[in-house]
Amino acid sequence: MTLIEKNGYPDFIYMNAARIFQGIHTEKSKDRMLVQYGNNLESPALAFKDERCKRVSYELAFNALKYQDLLEEILLDSGVYPCQSIPDELTSLLVVMLYDLQSRKFEARKIFDEEEPVAEVQEVGHYLYRYMIKLAAALARCRIKHDALSIEYFIPETIRKQEQWVSALPFCVWINTYKISLQDVIRDLEMRGLTKVESVSDFDHHTYAMDQHCHDVLVFPSSLKEELLNLDLFADRKLLLQ
């Protein structure tokens, strides 16, 4: 996947994220349930082309979950929801695509020639783009109402602290010795400018360490995560994120 948040995602990513979100979204009491979610998105099997597509789908779904209350408020305040042309069964897709749209500052996503269009995604996407000005205005009103400099304000404090803590943790990678040897992995990492250190306490940005107990496990600083996950070593499943 060469596309990322700035351009949007292929249609199947949104569908997978919507199905995941359908199964994890917060169910509210009847007196607070202003946005209705259908239930037919949770049954079809998820189709992931590769590990990266899987990770992106889950990230998109869980980001929508973190901001579910805000996204619902935007939909209601803008008057974009409810809409007769968008059935309840597509509300999860509507919320997921709204999160992605606002994260790109309401810029239309790029359509890639090689992607296979999904009718539901096309329908919801066109609907949201038609009302982008109203949605952006509703987000601005929400931020003014809550005196929020950014949408991160709407994440509960406990989750915000938890994310900060998790993002600072080193991460571990298994070497798939059926496909590549430890020596070849080390050679590849060194060619990319990474230096081996004795322990995580010695970490700088472009460094790594051997696990002290498992000789087929490498440990990296958190700042390298996105960079490393884009390598062919992960796409070819020669390295596996623990």
TrEMBL record:
GO terms for biological process: methylation. It comes from the Eukaryota. Keywords: Methyltransferase, Transferase. One of its GO terms (molecular function) is methyltransferase activity. Signal peptide: none annotated. This is NSUN7 methyltransferase.
